[in-house]
Amino acid sequence: MINTYKHIILDLDGTITNSEEGITKSVEYALNKFGIKVTDTKKLTAFIGPPLLDGFKTFYGFSEPDAILARKYYRDYYGEKGVFQKELYDGIPDLLESLKQASKKLYVATSKPHIYANMILDHFNLSHYFKKILGAEVNELHHDKALYIKEIIADHPKSSLDQFVMVGDRMHDIIAARKNNIDSIGVTFGFGNISELKAYGATHIVNSVQELKDFLLP
C-alpha cells in the first residue's frame, strides 16, 4: 500500500539521536546528589522519553519538590556536558535529505525543552530540514506531544489527517498520534520495544532507519 504521508513528525531522542550516554549520565549525576548510587546505567534508559519530573517520581518515588530539585541537578550536568553526549543513528542525514528531496514536510516534536532540541539539531547541522521544532518549556509545562501535533495540523487546514504521521520509539509518541487521529510509525532501534509499540497501537513498526526510509519513500 502506498502511503499518503506528506507531513512527517519525528521524535528526537531514540529516533533521530541515540542520546543514551548524555541522558543516563545526567540522571546518574542527579541521583548521586540524593545519595542514590547507580550500579547499572542501562536501567536509566527508562528516563528517555517521558518528562523528567515524571521519571524521577515514577521510577524513584520522588516527591514533587525532590523531583524538581533532581531536575535542576540533571540540568546542571546536561547543560554543560550531556546535551552533546549523543550520536546520530546511522542513516539519519540521508533519510532527512531524501525526504526533503521528495518534498516531504518535516517537524520535530519532543518532550525535551525546545532550547536543548534546537542546540542538538544545530550541533548536527540538521535544523534546516525542519519546518518546526517543538518541545517543552524549561519548566516542563506544555510538554504534551499531542499539543505539538495539534499545532502542526492546525498550520495546514487544507491537509487531510491521513497526510500526517508521527514517528517515534516510545508509547508517548504513539499516544500523541492517536489523540490527534493520525497514523504513527514505531521504531524499534530507539529505547522502546516492539511489545510497547504494539500495546499502544502503533500503526506501523520499522526496525531500522533504512526500513523507515523505504517505508516513507516507496
Q: Can I get a quick summary?
A:
This protein is of the alpha/beta class. The protein folds into two domains: 141 residues, Rossmann fold (3-Layer(aba) Sandwich); 65 residues, Putative phosphatase, domain 2 (DNA polymerase, domain 1), CATH 1.10.150.240.
Give the CA-CA distance, first to last residue: 9 Å
Query: What is the makeup of the main sheet?
Result: 6 strands, parallel
Return the structural class.
alpha/beta
CATH class assignment of the largest domain: Alpha Beta
Q: In the CATH scheme, what's the topology name of the largest domain?
A: Rossmann fold
Strand/helix succession: EEHHHEHEHEHEHEHEH
Question: Which overall shape is indicated by the principal axes computed on the Cα atoms?
Answer: globular
**Fourth CATH level, the homologous superfamily of the largest domain:** HAD superfamily/HAD-like
Strand order of the largest sheet: 5-4-1-6-7-8
